[in-house]
Amino acid sequence: MDNETKLITVSIVTPNGVQYEHHGQIVVLDAIDGELGIMAGHEPIVTPLNIGSVQVKRIHSHDEQTDEIAVNGGYVEFSNDVATIIADSAERARDIDINRAESAKERAVRHIEEAKKKHDVSSQKRAEVALRRAINRINVYSSKK
């Protein structure tokens, strides 16, 4: 890493505490208005996030590395080269239990079908959110190298 590379601090916080904290060159997020990339010097911003992944490109022992974290919505606040992401839950790709995620996906699909049969819109919407969360975790897990 050359001396000119400016880094940001990326911190992901859930109700269970800090789940991730590293320095990186860029963080890429799934904001509600589309994909957002933030680097050092970016203007201050606060924006809501979709259920999606957070990617942090960082330097580790002179090698570039990208960490990917599944987050379930929330928001990001960036100022003074610090990105703080507040989310209900967050899991690094390496920590995702793929069997649990696949089971959650299957459960959500069943709940959607049951809710449709009963014309229960509220239950259907909750199950659709659970499905998006499960698919996000599966996708993040699948992206790890």
Automatic annotation (TrEMBL):
Subcellular location: Cell membrane
Gene (UniProt): atpC
Family: Belongs to the ATPase epsilon chain family.
Summary of the function given for this chain in its UniProt record: Produces ATP from ADP in the presence of a proton gradient across the membrane.
Subunit note: F-type ATPases have 2 components, CF(1) - the catalytic core - and CF(0) - the membrane proton channel. CF(1) has five subunits: alpha(3), beta(3), gamma(1), delta(1), epsilon(1). CF(0) has three main subunits: a, b and c.
The keyword Membrane appears for this protein: yes
ATP synthase F1 complex delta/epsilon subunit N-terminal domain boundaries: 9-90
Domain ATP synthase epsilon subunit C-terminal: 95-140
Membrane association type: Peripheral membrane protein
Keyword entries, A-Z: ATP synthesis, Cell membrane, CF(1), Hydrogen ion transport, Ion transport, Membrane, Transport
One cellular-component annotation, GO: plasma membrane
InterPro entries: ATP_F1_dsu/esu_C_sf, ATP_synth_F1_dsu/esu, ATP_synth_F1_dsu/esu_N, ATP_synth_F1_esu_C, ATPsynth_dsu/esu_N
Pfam families per the UniProt record, alphabetical: ATP-synt_DE, ATP-synt_DE_N
An example molecular function term from Gene Ontology annotations: ATP binding
UniProt KW Membrane keyword: yes
Source organism superkingdom: Bacteria
UniProt-recorded name of the protein: ATP synthase epsilon chain
